[in-house]
Amino acid sequence: MRIDWSTLALQLVNFAILVWLLQRLLYRPVMRVLDARRAAAEERYADAARAAKAAEQQLSELAAQRAAIATERATALERAKEQARQVVAARRAQAETDARELLDEARRTLAQERERVLAEARRAALDLAGEMARRVLAETPESVRVEGWLERVDGHLRSLAPAERTELSDQLAAGHALRVVTAQPMPVEAQERWRARLRESLGADIAIDFESEPRLIGGAELRFPRAALSFSVRSMVEALGEEARRDGKPR
Question: Measured between alpha carbons, how far is residue 129 from residues 140, 143, 217 in Å?
Answer without folding.
Answer: 16, 23, 10
